[in-house]
């Protein structure tokens, strides 16, 4: 049996009957590139995460020209931070986080920037900001293929870790 055929069969089995606490998927529809999530077993130091009591860790993989998103993909957004500075609470969910990021993309907050230079440009030379943002979108975000391990917001790739 060919390697790829066997891997496809095994992934189908994993998708239909995953072992408890384990999930596995292809990256960019490439059978030879897989990602997996394994939850730590009870009684081990790897058990338990902090979500939803702490916000998920979210970052952009796709480069974006934005005053609230830096070159490492970190996002300055109150719903991704704990109080008192942030607004995260366990009642919020991933949908709320993604919607908040989408809104931030539409309406940057130049008064709480992560990248001050871009914030200044947004405030005082918006046409130049818009032009650069469009150029970056064309260069880095046009035609991205989205794998199941990333979320799609516009044409941007995000990684969400809970």
TrEMBL record:
Its EC number is 2.3.2.23. It is an enzyme of class 2 (transferase). Residues 2-142 form the UBC core domain. GO terms for molecular function: ATP binding; ubiquitin conjugating enzyme activity. InterPro entries: UBC, UBQ-conjugating_AS, UBQ-conjugating_enzyme/RWD. CDD domains: UBCc_UBE2T. Keywords: ATP-binding, Nucleotide-binding, Transferase, Ubl conjugation pathway. Pfam families: UQ_con. The keyword ATP-binding applies. It comes from the Eukaryota. Coiled coil: none annotated. The active site is at residue 76. Belongs to the ubiquitin-conjugating enzyme family. PANTHER family: UBIQUITIN-CONJUGATING ENZYME E2 (PTHR24068). This is Ubiquitin-conjugating enzyme E2 T.
